[in-house]
Amino acid sequence: ATVLEASEETPTGPDADPVDPADRGVLQPLAAKVLMKILYAARMARFDLLRAVCNLACFVTKWTSECDRKLHRLVCYIAATKHHRQIGWIGDKKSDLAPHLFADADFAGCKVTQRSTGGGHLAIMGPNSCFPQAGKSARHGAVSSSTPESEFYTGHIIMKQLGLPGRDLWETLLKGGVELFFHEDNQAMIQVVKTGRNPTMRHLGRVHKIAVSWLHECWNKGDFIIFYEKSDLMAADIYTKGFTDKSKWTAVCWLINVVEPKRLIDMIKYNAETKQRLEDEDAAKAAAKKAGVI
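The structure assignment produced for this chain is given below.
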């Protein structure tokens, strides 16, 4: 028997669904070791790998041939992008710097459990600064029945694990009061955080009610400033789902500063142009609405 032969043992535990022996992945004995090595590098310097490796880690005890294929594709991607770097720069005075937290969720993204996947991105930003600090991708522990619910859950976890600890750290490093800016791309979620309730969502379960109450309490205390962010600028998008379009994948990688070093200037220009384009579109819509065209 070789080390790559699939084990015939049936997975045990509350979350381990039996796998058809005929479909058992041959890489299962090595999966945990390989994934943990990739995860270490992903957490330190390659945030673009987090979603893929964290998703596969959920299936270590129920590994299938499909997981084999996904792991092979992930390793091939790493081999083809070893020259990519996650780059940060600071070009402002410390008084102009502030932590920015991005949170996003992919509603019912897991086809097996129907649970959503949440992602968060923390960066120190200023007029001429953008330095990634942390990234997170994780499948939810409870099923959400709508997109706002999945956003509540993600916002709660990301704010608790990345946002507030990051703000406390930078208040110490910058020796002064620091505002935490929370970027969110769901208008309904923002409104519920500000009001603490939503009459149209009375069916919320205990987990989601806790998330809403906690976020509302933190917002009332002034722990963060929440505002709407366009999806094209949502840096947390890369942590929540897969992408099949190469240009879109490149765009979301550039939002978290993962780039080929020789294309760094292109990345900075593209992000600035995207932001300017969206601002111009908003201005045009506002002018048209004021003129009564729409």
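Interim note for the steering committee: The chain has eight helices and seven strands. The beta strands are 85-86, 98-106, 117-126, 129-139, 181-184, 225-228, 258-259.
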